[in-house]
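Go through this one:
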Amino acid sequence: LVMGGLEGYLKVWDFAANKEGPGHHGHLAGVNSLAVSPHNKLLMSGSGDGTVRFWELATLKELFPLAGHRALVRHLAFM
């Protein structure tokens, strides 16, 4: 389970271990949208700060941001 918060924080819950996994504060505004890649390796997050960020799902290490959206990012999808 991946969660995004109003304060820009991301958290992962590990159901197999029944514990909270890594967390990371990466956005400057609330996280509005999340998408997990089909192979469960990448996470994409969209925020009110106008950025989309890509993360390694297992560690929540940020891989790279995409900036320049003029409004909050409401929807994301891996295709």
User: Anything to note?
Assistant: The first strand starts at residue 2 and ends at 4. The chain has a mean pLDDT of 88. The chain has no helices and seven strands.
